[in-house]
Design brief:
The chain is an alpha+beta fold. The chain has eleven helices and eleven strands. Strands 1, 2, 3, 4, 5, 6, 7, 8, 9, 10 and 11 form an eleven-stranded mixed sheet that branches. It starts with a strand and ends with a strand. Keywords: Disulfide bond, Hydrolase, Protease, Signal, Thiol protease, Zymogen.
Length: 349
């Protein structure tokens, strides 16, 4: 049974007569919300420390208390999403920001070739009402970047995996570590950030990317790139011939590109605490700006749909399967929330 901490659990702990709820998410509606109780917070903190093998400090407890208070306030308001307790719950803003490694740089973008633009609606066929590439075998399992700002590498590899499956009808997990270790000369900075387009260009020039099993990921533990690139061209499997940049800001064009081409690398704004603590539902925090200067996290767009009249995007994150909806987040579609359509691209494989 999947263990997780949810803000719903906190609500259960704060009832005047606490029920035994364990670690599983409560399925029943929250009723009779009581006032914030210190005893409930301490109990929740003890459970968090045990569940996430956290080494407690006074500062981390203060961070935890602050984040729980934000979730408590959010729970009281009508919303299409729920915030929950996860591995980030005891982190400060600066600690959390280390996981956000997308580095948008307009001055360097023009030097990436060959590239093409996906700007016009082709409409070769009617646009599907919903798309989910997970069900069509183009998405590998959720991965965990760990304590390394390598989200850009996971986003790029996810797009390469999808395009390779499209071309070869085989789903293969490829190496993020290769991109982290070997693409410094193309503008990326290992665990200190990078760009998906730089990664695609590197793979093209290098002659391909290895399987994950041949070049496994270690930077999530070491928190840095390896001292030397260990890429072996003889083990290269997927080869990139170019990349497609999708018209910035157009969600309609992005929907079409996704529906007819497969998973797409996108950059988003993941800075809001509400995103850090996202648990489930359709994320719709209006504070999540979508301009290019707000982009800080590389992810993989794998689908879109609608629930209870609310349109949404389906996004694969790289924070492990215990964050969000088994590692995924649904973001409200329609007004470029969090910048989903601001900087999107995919490789040609």
């Amino acid at each position: 049974m999947r263990l997780l901490l949810s803000v719903l659990l906190f609500a259960g702990l704060c009832l005047s007569k606490p029920a035994v709820v364990g670690w599983t998410k409560l399925q029943s509606p929250i009723q009779n919300l009581s006032n914030y109780q210190e005893s409930g917070l301490k109990h929740l903190w003890d459970m968090f420390v045990k569940e996430f093998s956290h080494i407690p400090t006074m500062q981390s407890f203060q961070n935890f208390a602050s984040n729980v208070a934000r979730m408590w306030e959010h729970l009281k308001q009508p919303s299409s999403f729920i915030m929950g307790i996860n591995k980030f719950s005891a982190m400060s803003v600066s600690e959390y920001n280390k996981y956000l490694g997308y580095r948008y740089n307009t001055s360097k973008m023009s030097g990436i070739i060959p590239r093409h633009s996906y700007r016009k609606l082709a409409r070769y066929a009617p646009l599907p009402e919903s798309v989910d590439w997970r069900w069509k075998g183009r998405v590998t399992k959720v991965k965990d970047q760990g304590q390394c700002g390598s989200c850009w590498a996971f986003s790029a590899i996810g797009a390469i995996e999808g395009q390779y499956q499209r071309a070869e009808n085989k789903l293969v997990s490829f190496s993020e570590q290769q991109l982290i270790d070997c693409s410094f000369n193309f503008g990326n900075m290992g665990c200190n950030g990078g760009l998906m387009d730089y990664a695609f260009t590197y793979v093209k020039e290098a002659g391909g990317v290895e399987r994950e099993e041949d070049y496994p990921y270690v930077s999530g533990v070491t928190h840095e790139a390896n001292e030397a690139c260990a890429f072996q061209s003889s083990k290269a499997v997927a080869k990139v011939t170019g990349l497609i940049d999708i018209a910035s800001g157009s969600e309609e064009v992005l929907m079409e590109a996704l529906a007819f081409n497969g998973p797409i690398s996108v950059a988003i704004n993941a800075a809001p605490t509400s995103f850090m603590m996202y648990h489930e539902g359709i994320y719709d925090d209006p504070a999540c700006k979508g301009d290019s200067s707000s982009l800080n996290h590389g992810v993989l767009l794998v689908g879109y749909g609608k629930e209870n009249g609310i349109p949404y995007w389906i996004i694969k994150n790289s924070w492990g399967s215990r964050w969000g909806e088994n590692g995924y987040v649904r973001i409200k579609r329609g007004n470029n929330l969090c910048g989903v359509a601001t900087a999107a691209s995919f490789p040609l494989v």
